[in-house]
Amino acid sequence: MRHSARIQVGPVRFRIGSDWRAPIAAIEALYADYPRDDARPADATVRLFAARPWRRWLRPSVHIGGDFVVPDALPLPLAMGLLAAEMGMNLQVALGWRRHLLLHASAVARDGRAVILSGESGSGKSTLAALLGEGDWRLMGDEFTLIDPASGDALAFPRVVSLKNEAIAEMTARVDAARMGPLLVGTPKGDIRHLVPRADAIAAMHVPARPALILFPRFGGEAAIEPMGEGEAFVRLTEASTNYTALGEAGFAALARLVRGTPAFGISYPDSATGMALVERLWAETAR
Amino acid sequence: MSAVRTLVDLLAGRADAATLAPRDWDGVISVARAEAMLATLAHHLRDTGLPPAVAALFADQRAAARVAQAQALWEVEMARRALAPQGIEFVLLKGAAYAAAGLSCSEGRQIGDLDILVQALDVRRAENALLNAGWEWVKSDPYDDFYYREHMHELPPLIHSVRDRMIDVHHTILPLTHRKTPDALALVGDAVATVDGYAVLCPEDMAVHCAAHMIADGDLQGGLRNLWDFHCLTRDFASADPGYWGKLDGRAAMHGLRGAAHRSARLARDIYGAVLPPGWDRHDPADLWFRRRLLARDDWGRQTDFLLQQAFYIRSHWMRMPPLMLAKHLWTKWRKGHNPASRGTSSS
């Protein structure tokens, strides 16, 4: 393709091709400080393309393709090319990655032990992880957490954090502007702005962490902590995994081991400060 | 060299994996994925000197293919439990058959829907037995349903309500309206049993069906994978039975598919380096178009050569039904708002 970039996030190396320069330039700017290993071939390919040649210039719209595609996925305007690239990368991991059990969850780590936060979008798991990652936690990722079936460890996937709507202002107030990407207004997911994780989180992206706590956050309502049984945590995490079925017995064994060895809680919180305090409290009381 | 050429050279043993640069691998991996052959390649290049990242990715693919194959064979067993009590015998076709018979082309091979062949007189009973055992009709429109039942060689696809897996129940191997009419009775009658007691086509019919599916029925979408099946099947059968190619020739002629079998063999020779006996080792200038169609993919895994694709698409329909019927079919599809170039009933 006309323009391309290669980036590595955690264990996955991507090749991104595009009919336009802009999405590649945006990706390269955001991932400029990620480790580069150009001797390594790509595991996954993303393609950003115009459905018809003239749509490169005339009302340009970016179709998302790659090794794996979602049929009938809607294209995005060129101004949201960065979001298209991000969606393409997520898609390749969600549908193609087989080395680890994939959880649609954010995670942070401290002292080699991880807190995994699983929830629907809107649960605040990304924002909580991003905020914790600005304190004395290492951000492991805001979208995917990978569980190694062999060791049971959690592996990081620290792509740039995708901040949405209210979370944008909350983070912009706290971090250096150089770590923020361009503001994408009015995307199908609302306003989006990307945050580059802290340098220490990127540098440690290959360092595994032992799962210590599984949380199912829910934004809104009174502050509350609800202990969760292994069975419920298991079922919820099968729903949060994109490759649990494809992994077969290895996936079952990895997930069973995870929920048996890791205490799980549902937490509700009315605001980020309370959410962070709940995480700290549970960490102090129960993490093992 | 283009990535798709590198891919077939690696499979044919003409290229050495150790000489590939990282950028070469990017393309090869993408193209192999697009052709549903990455795990096949991973098996083929096992124990060769691969860059660590490629070796790790290939190990993932082999493990994933093992799980997928076990799941596909479980689906075979589920079909047996649904059909055997009704006394309905069925023959496994394509991917599930190769896996059940432990054939070399099944190593890493992706298996999609479960394809089975039953005698024409058992079709309705088979459908009922499957519906009673938890399969349901995929919601489709009345025209597609009518088209399948009236003109196709298989029932409209059924999907299992719990396991979410599709089954295609065939009663022959080419559409009823196709210019060729294979001998369906012989296909079922001469089927052979695997060690686990499942029926699969006899070695000659298995290669004939593979060739028919690739050359006489489809538009060569995914053709490299089908051609690899044909290549492995004929190579392994011929090495076990020196008279195999002769028998294949006769059997293909009986089914009216000698041309398709011979073309498949020549393409397997040209692309995967198959060694053919005299009588098969010929040349046909038209093979060029087939080779070009099979290799029409760029280094990003995208289909190229749009006009050639369209030509093969039209060809597949031309062989499948008489011109007047084709016109009517496309007219109906068009009026219903289907894009004739998209994949509807006609691509099965």
Automatic annotation (TrEMBL), chain A:
Q: What span is annotated as the signal peptide, if there is one?
A: none
Q: Does the keyword Iron apply?
A: no
| Alphabetized InterPro entries for the sequence | HprK-rel_A (IPR027600), P-loop_NTPase (IPR027417), Sigma_54_int_dom_ATP-bd_1 (IPR025662)
Keywords attached to this entry: Kinase, Transferase
Q: Name one GO molecular function term.
A: kinase activity
Q: What is this protein called?
A: HprK-related kinase A
State the organism named in the record: Sphingopyxis soli
TrEMBL record, chain B:
Query: Could you tell me which Pfam families the record lists for this protein?
Result: NTP_transf_5
Q: What is this protein called?
A: Nucleotidyltransferase family protein
Source species taxonomy: Bacteria, Pseudomonadati, Pseudomonadota, Alphaproteobacteria, Sphingomonadales
